[in-house]
Amino acid sequence: MSEKDKLPAAEPDPALEWAKLWKAMAESSNRMVEAWSGSMAPFMLARLSEKPAGFGDGNELSAAIERMAQGPRLADVWDIDRKMALAFGAWIEMRQRLASYNAVAAAPWAEASKRFLETMSAIGTGETPAPDWREAFAKWSEISNEELIRNQRTDGFLRAQKELLQAGLQLRSRQDDIAEAASAMFGLPTRKDFDDVTRQLTELRREVRALSRQARGQKIEGAL
Amino acid sequence: MSDQENQASRFARDMAANAEKMFKATQLIANTRDEDVNIGTTPKHLVMRRDKVELFHYEPMAEATATTPVLLAYGLIGRYTMADLQPDRSLVRSLLSKGLDLWLIDWGQPGRAERWLTIDDYVDDYIDAAVDRICRETGYDRINLLGICEGGVFTTCYAALHPEKVKNLVLTITPIDFHADTKGTAAHHGFLNIWTRSLDPEDIDKLVDTYGVLPGEFMSSVFSMMTPMRSLTKYNVDLIDVVMQSVGSWGYCKQRVPSPRWSGA
Predict the structure, then answer these.
(1) Residues of chain B with a CB closer than 8 angstroms to some CB in chain A
(2) Which of B38, B107, B40 is nearest to B77 (CA)?
């Protein structure tokens, strides 16, 4: 038996093992994203050509991704990939909501332009002198302001903005899930841990201050 | 000369005149550094710190005319410097020059660690502790409260809960009726109420869960929607007017330029 054979087998390095696992997961998720991009691009282009509003009026794609991501689960195997897929679905959903919002938010500018042209045409005729550019800009500003304020109060605008906010929050939440999983994987404190600590600290402060007030009250009563 | 020629020459003249003003405005902004913009400089000293909240006492600037202390409380949106912008535009200096004994609560900058604080903490803990401290320092058992914006909401709650500690309550730009817009007010009033009511309570909860606080950029964007065109033009086209008002004084001009810290607020 050689000297080398007599030595005990080296312990596997956990950090190295994690790094390998992480690399495998990243490669796997990259392949998944590439596959989606390849398979979904023709579908997305077709949808865009069918409907000028693009994805603004539907969310089938993100719903499909969500269904795929939430399919059968095998304990926590490929959990990070599932989280990435959910974040990708949330990103598509957010883009759709943003497109819808932009369409609603752009509407008052067309109306403002129409009103401005009508107003300026009326001013420019007859003996009234044409306004200088500052006066014209002030009129444009006044009309646009009226139209924007009117639009912001419509149900359509408020709904579009609410849905965009919800989609943005969902995306952020899914991104946070990935960050949490990565932190947990490397044994780092997560944001949830931080929230737990600050909650306990806030509650502790309240208790201490309530006791302090109580003690002060008793001291004053005792002195009377 | 025809009307069209008149208009064209007038437009060219206007553009030439305004191009010069725009050039001056750009030059002014380019030459202005943060250190040129001095805000919140009225002398004061720290009396108490509680978490991130600080209680300050302003140095007197005139003979005392009213000795009851005044506690100034602004909102969590913005900073206390809104009441002390610069020497000639300062509510704080104005009150001090009238001989008032002025105190200030600075809420600091709440972050994720403050996400568990409630309105009870602000009203019944921070303000209450500040009032108790002022009473202890001055010997008064009641003080005057001056609430600005959301600070007015806090001080109103405090005055309702502790009337024995409040001599007078003064409010400015304070929202009290959050449904006033439903009673047929002008079209440009109450947008924040309408916008907030369009959300579900779960949306607000999720916003706070996700970010810990309402992000400043988010609040700024909602506030800018209250006056949409003004928000779009105040840092570009309106700068022409700032230059026109400057009457050739660069020092005065620099004071007129809003600090970058205020941009979008």
Answers:
(1) 3, 7, 10-11, 14-15, 18, 51, 112-117, 121, 125, 187-188, 191, 194-195, 198-200, 203, 206-207, 209-212, 225, 227-230, 233, 237
(2) B107
pLDDT tens digit string along A59-108? 667 777 776 666 655 556 667 888 888 999 999 999 999 999 999 999 99
Ordered mean pLDDT values, 10 residues apiece, chain A (224 residues):
50 69 67 57 54 53 70 63 89 94 92 90 70 82 92 93 95 92 89 94 96 87 78
β-bridge mates for residue B70, sequence order: B102, B144
Over the stretch B211-244, which tens digit does the pLDDT of each residue have?
998 888 888 888 888 888 888 887 777 766 666 6
Q: Find the DSSP H helices in B32-170.
A: 91-97, 119-120, 128-138, 150-161
Residues B212 and B111: their CA atoms lie apart, in Å, by 7
CB B107 within 8 A of CB B76: yes
The tokens for B42 are: 């009225």
Q: For A192, name the nearest residue in chain B, comparing CA atoms only.
A: B209
- Per the CB < 8 A criterion, the answer to whether B55 and B135 are in contact is no
- What ipTM score was computed for the predicted complex, to two decimals? 0.77
Task: Kindly list the distances between the CA atom of residue B40 and the CA atoms of B58, B86, B94, B118, in Å, as whole numbers in the listed order.
Answer: 11, 7, 13, 28
